């Protein structure tokens, strides 16, 4: 909740430069990025490819991700428009996904969230040996992938602080469950999944560690990694030693060099998160999940798009009662002038800001001025089954605490 990213987390390589951004929301953008957003607005208005009215504003399902999609297409506006359409097809069309529709696959232990790295980024574990027959059912596999990743976007991210994930791809025993006869089907399914990750959830993965690679699968795996992403993928010879550089021991299962018990497939969901990802200790008396206090504004964040000056108040006003890092608070103060915007650096202030934000939202609802019809039609996601919680310490986030069924919607 209160993690403060450095340049190393905000920009790939730790140096502020064009096209290397990793954190996009609740944070100031460069003049080059804003200029490209302006070009994308103009293209939407002129070509009417995405909105029937030819509106220059970004449609609700893509507004938060516009800069991320632009960067994914190397700021080529025409290609970014095409990616927006893919985004609509592969994400908006498939959501919401109900927990009950994927629960049996979630319990297989093929793909699950477990702990966070030292930068508070959630860790996605993929264990091919638990894939079962999903390699023969591409749509089923993609549906599971989307549910798992949407879960992270909705429950495991904090805009402006934590917006990325890391991946452990474990190929142990994969050759026993994937025969030579199934390699073609596996390759086809893997490419569909890779396309989903690349096009719909672009700019989210910081790195992937591929462990226990059998020689029979090397070509299949390498063929699924886009050329420009290969630098993010490593094949560590000593997995435990390598992962120890990125994780506190209490964030990993024993099989990966941690101290948490190895999970049976059926125990991987609900997902497991733990306090102390940065090495800090939980504050006494703060073991209860804070998820129930959060709202949509907290989970979504805002893209600080200043390319349309007449629309700036739409995102500036909510930001004044949002949990911001010191750097973002200083930047917002400079933009709006007047009283300084205070950063959020403690839990008490975080709770106060959320209460203020909810009061503002309630007031808007009472006078009928909340967003567009499309925005209002998207309900808050219900809470999934109880997640193994983190405590609300310096490196915690608001995890769900309930056992009701979940319908994941877009954010």
Automatic annotation (TrEMBL):
<dbReference type="Pfam" id="PF00650">
    <property type="entry name" value="CRAL_TRIO"/>
</dbReference>
<feature type="compositionally biased region" description="Low complexity">
    <location>
        <begin position="374"/>
        <end position="385"/>
    </location>
</feature>
<feature type="compositionally biased region" description="Acidic residues">
    <location>
        <begin position="398"/>
        <end position="411"/>
    </location>
</feature>
<dbReference type="InterPro" id="IPR001251">
    <property type="entry name" value="CRAL-TRIO_dom"/>
</dbReference>
<dbReference type="InterPro" id="IPR036865">
    <property type="entry name" value="CRAL-TRIO_dom_sf"/>
</dbReference>
<feature type="domain" description="CRAL-TRIO">
    <location>
        <begin position="99"/>
        <end position="264"/>
    </location>
</feature>
<protein>
    <recommendedName>
        <fullName>CRAL-TRIO domain-containing protein</fullName>
    </recommendedName>
</protein>
<feature type="region of interest" description="Disordered">
    <location>
        <begin position="371"/>
        <end position="411"/>
    </location>
</feature>
<feature type="compositionally biased region" description="Basic and acidic residues">
    <location>
        <begin position="386"/>
        <end position="397"/>
    </location>
</feature>
